[in-house]
Amino acid sequence: MDASYDFEVWSTTARVVVTDSAALARAVEIVRAGLDDVERACSRFRADSELSTLTPGTHQVSAVLADLVGTALDAAEASDGLVDPTVGGVMSGLGYDRSIELLPADGAPVRLVHTVPGWRRVHLYGDQLELPRDVVLDLGATAKARAADLLARRAADTLGAGVLLELGGDIATAGPAPEGGWQVLVRDTEDDPACQVTLVEGSAVATSSTVRRTWRRGGVLIHHVVDPRTAAPAAPVWRSATVAASSCVEANTASTASIVLGHAAPHWLAERGFSARLVDQQRRVVRVRDWPREVAA
What we know:
By secondary structure, the protein is α+β, with helices and mostly antiparallel strands. Helix content is 28%, strand content 28%. The strands form five sheets. Strands 1-2-6-7-10-15-16-17 form an eight-stranded antiparallel sheet. A three-stranded antiparallel sheet has the order 3-5-4, covered by helices on one side. A three-stranded mixed sheet has the order 8-9-18, with no helix packed on it.
């Protein structure tokens, strides 16, 4: 019988679902421990995280951070730079310099950064990371999705049960799916249109949003998805973009790129074979390819 457990993490919500209720407590332990490892490796908001303590130059980094940086660089390459981990300086300039719930209701106008250094200037050779002087890494666009993929698989392999792990809209599955597949409700906010999809074993879905992580500076509402081409928040064409793929990282990379691309997103997604669901500012739904469908790995 399926069993689930919800908790708060990283200023968002997490849900662990298992096909064997006896495995739930241990699955939650595995997930929480893994999330702690990821936070200690790459949080921008912890002064003692490994990422926060990096200085310009070449460093030997932990296996966890090397994996997360490598994932971010792979996502940048796969998206032709639309998802770029070198936006950390831009994010701080926009006022997103601490956990979202700690941001003031408003503040001084933003300090604009006119260019993003670019992911190609960051080099990773195994566990050797070369960090240029003017680059501040922000792994937020991919680390959560990578954690979902890794920890769902770790829990499933350890326990021999099917596992679904959701981290703030990033959903990964591993191990045997329940009869009829994993039933997932897709809806970014309570007042958005909803639909249900069926995920089969090993498939994933991710949602990127312009309405969930927002703050004000100088009276202007700002969201957290930066367009690396302009070094500014992406034009809010879409309230949300949801993409299905065989991994959560792939799905999240495509959903983030969709927010950045705006009106060009449906063509970009279809050209790359993604099934997706976009919700515009009037809450109209644009479906790409065969969404909704049973999502196969």
